[in-house]
Write a structure and sequence with these properties.
CATH architecture of the largest domain: 3-Layer(aba) Sandwich
Structural class: alpha/beta
Strand order of the largest sheet: 3-2-1-6-7-9-8-10-13
Strand content: 15-25%
Helix content: 25-40%
Number of domains: 2
Distance between the termini: 68 Å
Largest sheet: 9 strands, mixed
Shape: globular
CATH topology of the largest domain: Rossmann fold
Order of helices and strands: HEHEHEEEEHHEHEEEEEHEHH
């Protein structure tokens, strides 16, 4: 994520994660930028994770950012602001929780003050399975609202987000495409995280991207290994470099990546799945009239055999049904 976001030397920039955990993504991003050239900002609901992040800042020469590590509920009460407005950041990285019960404060979010931040809507409270409420939709909208003009973000989302035909997911994709602020998507292999079986994709947002959008299907890459009781897919360094190089070069590679226009995406119902843009290839093989007749004879013979078996089965089923008696 950091290698795709940071492709040139920058100075005095801000980096933010609204669901930072212990700060792994932020540490990688800061290293790519240069620890002395960026300031870290974060918020996370876990006190333990926030404490670990502060320790990480000390260990990674980012002591100057310790005061910006905040423990709290980002969705309900975002801390980092400029006056009453959300603070805007140059870079944002996040692997937010996908599903979580936030029914206890959902209605508190549905206010006029939050309409701009949650432009695509707020998930409704289901009658059952409140633990499956799609909280990642709120984090993603919050990230978009927290991005500076010209800023960049990388967000891990469930792969279902990139093809949903309606609802909040589609509205978010539509905004990213219509406002020309989407750099691309990388669809990752299954079980890339040992703790979840959910297929994930990485959404790259770039408010300055007016050129092609890169869609990469990396789902077939990686080696499956055992991680405790779970199975995990691990990418080799060569595979990681292939993804990074392809994405940054906006390169189209058969059955792996495409570079498409915003208009192309809009025409495909705003789908961000690379597979929907791959060329369908039909291979034609020249055969003689005799070979054609031979193939047709074989196909006809096979069908006759299958039809005969089907008729025999029909008779047997009817015979068995006739023998049934009510007891």
């Amino acid at each position: 994520m950091a290698a795709i976001l940071v492709t040139e030397k920058v100075q005095g920039v801000s980096a933010y994660d609204p669901s930072a955990g212990s700060g792994t993504l932020l540490m990688n991003l800061a290293h790519a930028i240069g620890e002395d050239r960026c300031t870290i900002y974060s918020q996370d609901i876990s006190q333990k994770s926030s404490s670990l992040l502060r320790l990480n800042l000390i260990l990674n020469k980012l002591v100057h950012s310790i005061q910006n590590v905040i423990q709290g509920n980002t969705i309900l009460s975002p801390y980092h602001k400029e006056g009453t407005a959300l603070r805007k950041f140059d870079y944002i990285v996040s692997n937010p929780p996908f599903k979580m019960d936030f029914s206890d404060f959902r209605n508190d979010l549905d206010t006029k003050a939050n309409q701009e931040r949650f432009f695509a809507g707020i998930p409704k409270i289901p009658k059952h399975a409140t633990d499956k409420m799609a909280i990642y939709q709120l984090f993603l909208q919050h990230i978009i609202a927290s991005l500076k003009p010209g800023g960049k973000a990388a967000v891990v989302v469930p792969t279902g987000f990139i093809t949903a035909q309606s609802g909040i997911d589609k509205k978010i994709r539509q905004k990213l495409v219509d406002d020309q602020m989407l750099a691309g998507v990388v669809s990752m292999p299954s079980n890339i995280f040992a703790t979840t079986g959910t297929n994930v994709s990485i959404l790259f947002i770039d408010d300055s991207n007016k050129g092609p959008v890169v869609l990469v299907d990396a789902s077939s890459l990686g080696e499956k290994i055992k991680d405790g009781k779970n199975q995990k897919t691990v990418l080799s360094e060569e595979e990681e470099n292939r993804i990074i190089t392809t994405f940054n070069a906006k390169e189209a590679i058969e059955d792996f990546s495409v570079a498409v226009s915003y208009a192309d995406i809009a025409a495909k119902n705003y789908s961000l799945s690379a597979g929907q843009y791959f060329d369908v290839k039909i291979e034609y093989v020249d055969i003689t009239p005799e070979e054609f007749q031979a193939k047709m004879h074989t196909f006809t013979g096979n069908l006759d055999t299958l039809f005969a078996e089907s008729r025999a089965l029909e008779k047997e089923i009817k015979k068995q049904l006739a023998g049934l008696r009510y007891e």
